[in-house]
Specification:
15 helices, 2 domains, 43% helix, 378 residues, Arc Repressor Mutant, subunit A, alpha/beta, TIM Barrel
């Protein structure tokens, strides 16, 4: 069986105003963190002895804050304790301003073959609002350096839905991005998370979020422009040139087993999910005492598996009838025929013999459709 590994590197130069991922700015504890992380990897070495790891993903935080030698140390620990498949996809997230040609060459030499660059915008005023540490010029330089180093699989992360953003400014960023010809593009809607500086600004009414109507326009603009530029829309927020889908992200959307290492990292294995403590000091302390740094866990019920399968299938644009039948033995088409026909008449989806195929409009209402369809499995 194939499986994946996620490594959470929780360090950042500083916290962006919109981010609610667990991260810290204290880089003095990096050596202790690396030691603890390797201990956690060793604890789970027997967990996947019958499985080959076909994807590894370094996320954060900002993994490229670590010196390349530390990333290599982690990779060596993974190779020592797990069976890494030949041709495995190994991704590292990077922020412009934290990489250069030398470090990128080192990442490639140690076996990292995919890089995801957190550009977010090619408009400097928007980058300042988001409190990013780089300029649009530095973003282009980071991409060019990655290409010069030899990376043949580069992804760019973008964010839309910023206050005062309109179709014209968003199209400017999309065009600048496509001009670089990355193999993969992730375009995420800005989410206002409680407890973040941006969330507080919204509560104080110093920042006004975009209306749903404008957000929908920007979402549809993204789909139309990127599809017209040759990118396949294979998940709500993700686009790829042929053959360059993120194999690691597909693990999540297909309920494939994966292990997560590092503070706040999540794991999913044989229908069980668990997640680590989201405090780096506690994480290090637990591992130094030989304990797993798990905060909590859950065994997914059949209903949870069904609901997640429906939601994850729809996010990738296609709900496979057979996947539902394999789980509960039921023909969802028969149970939901009337509603599905209504959805089709409203141009949300197309009904095929194999499943439900979302239209561009359907992607816009993906979460609502998932809730309606999950009702048929009550």
């Amino acid at each position: 069986m194939l499986a994946g590994i996620y490594i959470h590197i929780p360090f950042c130069v500083h916290k962006c105003i919109y981010c609610d991922f667990y991260s810290v700015v204290n880089q003095k504890i990096i050596p202790d963190f690396i030691d603890a992380l390797i201990r956690e990897i060793e604890i789970y070495k027997d967990h996947a002895q019958q499985d080959k790891i076909h994807t590894i993903y370094f996320g954060g935080g900002t993994p490229t804050i670590l010196p390349p030698i530390q990333i290599e140390k982690i990779l060596n620990a993974l190779r020592k304790n797990f069976k890494i498949a030949s041709g495995a996809e190994i991704t590292i997230e990077a922020n412009p301003g934290t990489v250069n040609l030398s470090s990128l060459n080192n990442y490639l030499k140690m076996g990292i073959n995919r890089i995801s660059i957190g550009v977010q915008s090619f408009i400097d005023e928007e980058l300042k609002f988001l409190s990013r540490i780089h300029s649009s010029e530095e973003a282009v330089r980071a991409f060019s350096d990655a290409r010069e180093a030899g990376f043949k699989n580069i992804s760019i992360d973008l964010i839309y839905g910023l206050p005062d953003q309109d179709k014209t400014s968003w199209l400017f960023t999309l065009k600048k991005c496509v001009d670089l010809k990355p193999e993969h593009i992730s375009a995420y809607n800005l989410t206002i998370e409680t407890g973040t500086p941006l969330g507080k600004m919204v509560n104080l009414k110093t920042v006004r979020p975009l209306s749903d109507k404008v957000e929908s326009l920007l979402f549809l603009t993204t789909m139309e422009f990127l599809q017209g530029s040759g990118y396949h829309h294979y998940e709500v927020s993700n686009y790829a040139l042929p053959g360059y889908h993120s194999r690691h992200n597909m693990n999540y959307w297909r309920h494939i087993n994966y292990l997560g290492f590092g503070p706040s990292a999540h794991s999913f294995w044989l229908n069980k999910r668990w997640w680590n403590v989201n405090d780096i000091d506690e994480y290090i302390k637990l591992l130094l005492n030989g304990k797993k740094p798990v905060s909590d866990s859950e065994e997914l019920s059949l209903k949870q598996l069904l609901d997640e399968t429906i939601m994850l299938n729809l996010r990738t644009g296609f709900l496979d009838f057979n996947k539902i039948k394999d789980l509960n033995g039921q023909n969802i088409l028969e149970k939901g025929a009337e509603d599905f026909k209504e959805f089709e008449n409203q141009n949300f989806l197309k009904i095929t013999d194999e499943g439900l195929l979302l239209t561009n409009k359907g992607f816009l209402y993906c979460d609502e459709l998932a809730k309606r369809i999950s009702f048929f499995n009550q």
